[in-house]
Write a structure and sequence with these properties.
The protein is mostly beta strands and about 210 residues long. It has one domain: LURP1-related (Porin, Beta Barrel), CATH 2.40.160.200. It is built from 4 helices and 12 strands; from the N terminus they run βαββαββαβββββββα. It has helices at about 35, 55-60, 85-90, 185-200; strands spanning about 25-30, 40-45, 50-55, 65-70, 75-80, 90-100, 105-115, 125-130, 140-145, 150-155, 160-165, 175-180. A hairpin with a 5-residue loop joins strand 2 (about 40-45) and strand 3 (about 50-55).
């Protein structure tokens, strides 16, 4: 009788290979900017590297981020939309693209955050997954404060997708944890966190 509840619906954004049927505890550690150009590394409890994020110290361009898998292969290219449209817009807009053979290929999600840059309690940071449906303006939202390491990514239906929090006595800006619920795309969650990090002027910013 125990099998009824084991069917987890996968919600891939980057790829279903990054969706787990179990909840995952990921540890995020900031890289020292002097040595490695900044960014952060994501490990599991056994210290195995699952993802890493390169910021402008490595890429050499601000407003651009690269998410890599545990093997160091680039899986997501994220950039902030620039230009006149950006200057006139109420929102900062970010786009995440899948990487194919080292080149950005198809867009998989977009993120809007209100100016001035705040991860406010109003849940104003909104994420849309491609392809966009006409009926919906957003698919996920970020609630709480990323700067204080107390925020969550929630689905449109209100389910918690991932919870970001400080962990233990050593925890803080440089070490925190992310709990991703079963079925959700961990690479996508890390992509959203990379943008929050950059918006808050942290490890991925030069």
């Amino acid at each position: 009788m125990g099998h009824i509840h084991t069917q987890i619906t996968l919600s891939p954004v980057v790829s279903k290979i990054f969706c787990s049927s179990l909840h995952a505890v990921l540890l995020v550690r900031r890289r020292p900017p002097a040595v490695t150009g900044g960014g952060f590394v994501v490990t599991d409890r056994e210290q195995r590297v699952l993802f890493s994020v390169d910021g402008c110290g490595i890429i050499g361009a601000s407003g651009q981020l690269i998410v890599r898998d545990g093997d160091g292969t680039a899986i997501l290219f994220i950039h902030k939309k620039g230009g006149v449209v950006q200057a006139l817009s109420v929102n900062n807009r970010w786009k995440g693209y899948l990487m194919d053979y080292g080149e950005p290929s198809k867009p998989v999600f977009g993120l809007h955050d209100p100016k001035p840059v705040l991860c406010t309690t109003g849940g104003d940071v909104r994420v849309t997954v491609e392809p966009k449906g006409r009926k919906r303006q957003w698919d996920y939202e970020v609630t709480g404060s990323f700067a204080q390491r107390a925020c969550a990514v929630r689905s449109r239906a209100g389910h918690v997708v991932a919870q970001i929090g400080a962990k233990g006595t050593m925890a803080g800006k440089d070490l925190y944890h992310v709990v991703v619920q079963p079925g959700y795309d961990q690479a996508f969650v890390i992509g959203v966190i990379a943008i929050l990090d950059n918006m808050n002027g942290e490890s991925t910013r030069c």
